[in-house]
Amino acid sequence: MPKPNIRFTERPHLAHEHPMLNDYLRAFKERLQRSYKRSKHLGKSDPLLDQALQQAFTQNETFSQEKFELLVNYFIHSFFHYANDDFTRVDYYGYPSEQGMVSDSIEGAARNYPLLAAYLHYQTNTRHPIFIQIKETLSQGFLNATNPTHDGYWGKLTDFKQTICESADFALSLWLSKHHIWVNYSPSQQQQILTWLRQINQVQTVDNNWHLFILLVQFVIKDLSGIDEICLERYQRIKEFYVGEGWFRDGEKGNFDYYNSWGFHYGLFWLDQINPNFDRTFIQQSAIEFSEKFHYLFATQGFSFFGRSIPYRFAAPTALISTMIQQGHTDGRGKRILSTLTHFLIQQQAIKKGNVTQGLFQADRRLLDPYSGAASGLWSLRPFILLLYASQQIDFWQAKELPLAIEQQDYDISIPAINLRIIGTKATQEIIAIFQHQQYPDLPFAQASLHDQPFYQRWIEWLCGRSTRAKNNLLRKGVTAYSSKLSLYLPNKK
């Protein structure tokens, strides 16, 4: 049974979840501003890019190094196509978040930065044109985003603001590129960036995985400057969410979500990389225990998605990759998981116009939480960031792919820590994940489905550039069974 004794804290009132008229007016102004700055669709300016990606991931099922580099270069090219304001904003097309389009454009930059920074690890030829371009881009972007007098300034870090999340990717990118960029900044430039980052020490966050964003920034600050302002209380709170077998509850009343892989273990992995002397035993052992059973959820075509943030689906294998890096070798089964999921999703056109689509396959409003905007799903890049960072040191591309569990046999296993049962049937290649407890027993049966957005709400969302979508987390609607066939998430047929 899941650990019941997590200390209770009251959820704060979040202004962006309770918008007033002024919020819609501000969002409308942002929509006009950001729409003017957008480049035309990448699919229109360079339609062959999508075609080349589709062709490469359809012709065979092997996830070669060449395919990986094609995928990475696709997103790098897309970043430069949509970037503006001196690389501090990236304006993608898509449905907006409830934070507005300025926040969405900052996400577009921030969630690409780690990919760019990790590329500097991967590309050993420092004279390569892309290497030089990325180095100059990040160098400018870091300074412009933290300069209050620049048009691309990301603003002050304030309580519950979305930029708190993005500051973590900013800090990680700064750390990843420190030998190429940070060391070349003047003392005043370094101080400007540190001054902006250190605002993180005063902000309030929701009491869940957001603690990891704060910690990652603080770890980077200490590594780069020696200033130790790490809030150990936040780290202890993260550990308080730990229920065993590698799983964390996302807050005192939170769900057990598939983003444990890329939301919890990814953040902990980077804490361990930045400071290997910080609680390494727990961080690495919990990741190992998580990976031991998490792999049973993956089929050759699909994954038993449960929780929210479904459009971030490419990131599902993240913890499997980070654990390989921690252990210093490639697991052939984990490599096949990443390969099959990536191929399957791309073949279903889950990447288009330089971005991951805002759904499972095609764009689907029903699957997009109100906090997610046009660039939010780029956290899907996390396993590829890890491979840029360390694939060579674990001989990832030389390792042989090994069969998935579902390709070898039937199975029926459980994860008692979260009351989850996983049933795999080899003959049908289907995996069913069943939660054997009902966290929300009083919800009416009729609510246990994905609800579409009424037309008038869609119109308001388009006009104001601000999400009017409902939260559609099926776990919170009382759904307890999830299939790798993904029938729960298929589009409505009207």
Automatic annotation (TrEMBL):
InterPro entries: DUF2264_N (IPR049349), UCP014753 (IPR016624). Residues 69-403 form the DUF2264 domain. It comes from the Bacteria. It holds the Pfam family DUF2264. This is DUF2264 domain-containing protein.
